[in-house]
Amino acid sequence: MINVTKSYLPDLEEYNRYLEGIWERVHLTNDGPLLRELESQLKEYLGVRHLKFCTNGTVVLQMALKALDITKEVITTPFSYVATTNAILWEGCTPVFADIRPDDYCIDPDKIEPLITENTQAIMATHVYGNACRVEQIQAIADKYGLKVIYDAAHTFGATYNGRSILSYGDLSTCSFHATKVFHTVEGGCIVTDSDEMAQKLHFYRSFGHRNDDYYSIGINAKNSEFHAAMGLCNLPKVPSLIAARKQVFSWYDTRLDFENITRPTLTPGVDYNYAYYPVVFESEAKLLQVVDALKRNEILPRRYFYPSLNTLPFVAHLAQPCPVSEDIALRVLALPLYPDLPESDVDRICQIVNETVSANVASIEQ
Ligand SMILES: *Cc1c(COP(=O)(O)O)cnc(C)c1O
């Protein structure tokens, strides 16, 4: 069975050494020494000023909205994982969907401005597949209208834009360290900011809003444990070699797929990529479904990602905000298996099945 992703696991002995330390200290969670060490290594690796390691990449989106006092309309992308829209709704805000660019599937800055109303308070955009949004254009719009910018950077760990971690852009930026991501802590995530004041606020938010008997603000439980931090400490030093291995798999796909009837998203100029996903776009949903079937028959499980377009989710259907580009891409895009130790022979097989299915389709339509 070949899945769309496969989690990297460090040497068990290495992880065990961290466990021995946890057993000695009996400090399992609540700002433990491994968490602090991971935060400091992450800040150095990413080159960011403040970073809070939290329980997942969803709660940090909610914390971001709360920390910036966002309560009304948030202009957001329909092409993301459902967590982006859920966070907005969960915080009692209203998502306003701006369609995506047809080339890289990130939010289209030209679609943002016409949607701004007196209730608009923020833009929450996703850096899709590890590529960067048009951050300068988005910031210019935010500055013009006094809006906050939050980036869901769940895909971008290890990727840079103009030499800086993509996580360093926006008022607040979040990442997921879920088991399926480029860098993972089993479950986990982080929120990044340049602002000392915001970092202090997020620090208290993460653990119920208080320290000992001093109660500062509303809070939630987004603390992560020493066990998760230990996994991060094992995995972080491996990130450069894991990205290099992904890049190798990428190049096999690039050279073996027949691009006559398949397209791929482009990269924003200035991005140094992390090879997070290998999405391909077919001519129609029917073709995509045929490819999925053919791969499944061979025990290969790709993933429709992202699907569906978030503006069509049943619980936002009443907002009736059409996004034709996103809706079209979501029907036709498929993420092919990609992980660091995916063998070349498997990529060969996947490409052969995809190429054959796509060209068989073309032949049968032409008849
Ligand atoms: C994975 C992901 C999330 C959610 O992260 P979790 O850690 O699973 O909560 C949010 N947004 C995007 C774009 C993601 O890919």
Automatic annotation (TrEMBL):
Species name: Fibrisoma limi BUZ 3
One Gene Ontology molecular-function label: pyridoxal phosphate binding
Alphabetical list of InterPro entries matching this protein: DegT/StrS_aminotransferase, PyrdxlP-dep_Trfase, PyrdxlP-dep_Trfase_major
Residues modified as N6-(pyridoxal phosphate)lysine: K181
Membrane among keywords: no
Similarity field: Belongs to the DegT/DnrJ/EryC1 family.
Active-site residues, Swiss-Prot/TrEMBL: K181 (proton acceptor)
Chain coiled-coil ranges: none
Gene Ontology BP annotations: polysaccharide biosynthetic process
Name this polypeptide is given: DegT/DnrJ/EryC1/StrS aminotransferase
